[in-house]
Amino acid sequence: QVRLAESGGSLVQPGGSLRPSCIASGINFRLHTWNWYRHAPGTDRDFAATIDSSGHKNYSDSVKGRFIVSRDNVRNTLYLQANSLKPEDTAVYYCQTKYRGREVWGRGIRVTVSS
């Protein structure tokens, strides 16, 4: 069974940084594309960042230039280095992938950006 477990959520001041991570089990991590999504209060869950099996990355316009997605294929771990955080980055952050044609999601972690 594929399991995704995020960690690293916190309360942080505007301008601060966090590095959420997502550990995967039950899946050949290195073969998959991995994504970060986020769900802010009162909005739909939105794409934030992606990294494919070759290490190619892409970002939403809202996080481009501030967030960096990375992966460790030895530790089966996905990371999101979130810098220059803004109050509008407040959301629940999820890691996600596709496995055998189905989407697999973690349970999410809460990131709150507030002074």
Task: Write out key terms for the chains shown.
115 residues; 4-stranded antiparallel sheet; 0% helix; 7-stranded mixed sheet; single chain; mainly beta
Question: What does it look like?
Answer:
0% of the residues lie in helices and 50% in strands. It is mainly beta and 115 residues long. Strands 2, 4, 5, 6, 9, 10 and 11 form a 7-stranded mixed beta sheet that branches. A 4-stranded antiparallel beta sheet has the order 1-3-8-7, with no helix packed on it. It starts with a strand and ends with a strand. The relative contact order is 0.32.
Describe the SSE topology:
Layout: E1 3-7, E2 11-12, E3 21-25, E4 34-39, E5 45-51, E6 57-59, E7 67-72, E8 77-82, E9 91-99, E10 102-105, E11 109-113
Parallel strand pairs: 2-11
Antiparallel strand pairs: 1-3, 3-8, 4-5, 4-9, 5-6, 7-8, 9-10, 9-11
Task: Provide a quick synopsis of the model.
By secondary structure, this protein is mostly beta strands.
Radius of gyration from CA coordinates: 13 Å
- Return the string of H and E elements: EEEEEEEEEEE
Biggest sheet details = 7 strands, mixed
Nearest-integer average pLDDT:
97
